[in-house]
Amino acid sequence: MEVLHIYEKAAISALVTQRPGEVKLGEQVQIFSSWEQLKNSPATFVLLGIPEDIGVRANHGIAGAATAWLPALKALLNIQSTDFLKGSELMVLGHFNFIDPVSTQVKDLENAVEQIDEAVYPVIQKIIEAGKTPIIIGGGHNNAYPILKGCALGFKKPMNVLNIDAHADLRPSQGRHSGNGFSYALKDGFLDQYAIFGLHQNYNNSAILAEIAGNPKINAVFFDELLSNGGTYQDALQPLMTQLNNSTGLEIDLDCIENVLSSAFTPSGFQINDLRKIILQSKKKFAYMHVCEGATQMADGRTSTSTAKTIAYLISDFLKAQALI
């Protein structure tokens, strides 16, 4: 727990740009004081950041996912507080402060990811046990594993997941990294039904495709099929959703959206408004939301000023839609 940096009111206020006659979400959000107090908080949702890209680098990806948290938080806190979304529904807990390992060898990075797992899952478990819905901004997709572990332990049953993603992240469970969080969650019994929406045929290897085809717990709709079959994304998603009856998490890997900066940047994928429609039109009560893999600055020098606002849109849509279910 010592790596969890909990925010005080002053830290949140410092991120809010105040204007006369306006009220921002950051002026209305709830502040964490204790785990006991959390249960009685009027907030339904708890926001948590995991700004790291150790798991991405362990998966031979380009660093950058650690940069999304703070700009996204600032963008979210500066949304207008209105009757559409007041802000008091949300508690800003804080973020994890993980130190990069000295060694950049893959094995040492994998060991560091295991340490991240051990730090993250107890916090998620406490949020669930308090009766709240975690919203997590990453960070690499390796964090799906400790999130699922924490939720499963909190609910005392395995989780289901809808993962909107270009990649299945079902690489072998041999050394933790961003490409095998769901493999480990399935193996360790924290994940039951795994639904993947928007997979790219070009970027999932034959072994992963065989695992999807042969495992009755895994169901997938490929983005290539969505392009060739026509119809709405909501209609194509519905058969997947009907199989997710237990507590279900929503995972959004930002590399599924066109031109959003990430390690696996894509010029072909969903538009941001496609994802917004899916979230806003969903009638499913989700146990958590995890937005991951986005970046505002990559290690290779690429930058983006739009990633933060993209994340803020997705989270504000989630808050609005889930409050109505």
Kindly list the characteristics that best describe this protein:
globular; Arginase, Chain A; 10-stranded mixed beta sheet; about 325 residues; single chain; about 35% helix; 10 strands; about 15% strand; alpha/beta; 12 helices
Account of the 3D structure:
The protein has a single domain (4-323), classed as 3-Layer(aba) Sandwich (Arginase, Chain A). It is globular and about 55 Å long. The model has no long low-confidence stretch (mean pLDDT 97). It has helices at 9-13, 35-40, 54-58, 69-77, 106-129, 144-155, 181-187, 206-214, 223-229, 233-241, 272-281, 307-323; strands at 4-6, 30-31, 45-50, 90-96, 133-138, 159-164, 191-199, 218-222, 248-253, 288-292. Strand 6, helix 7 and strand 7 (191-199) form a beta-alpha-beta unit. The chain has 325 residues and is an alpha/beta fold. Helix 4 crosses helix 12.
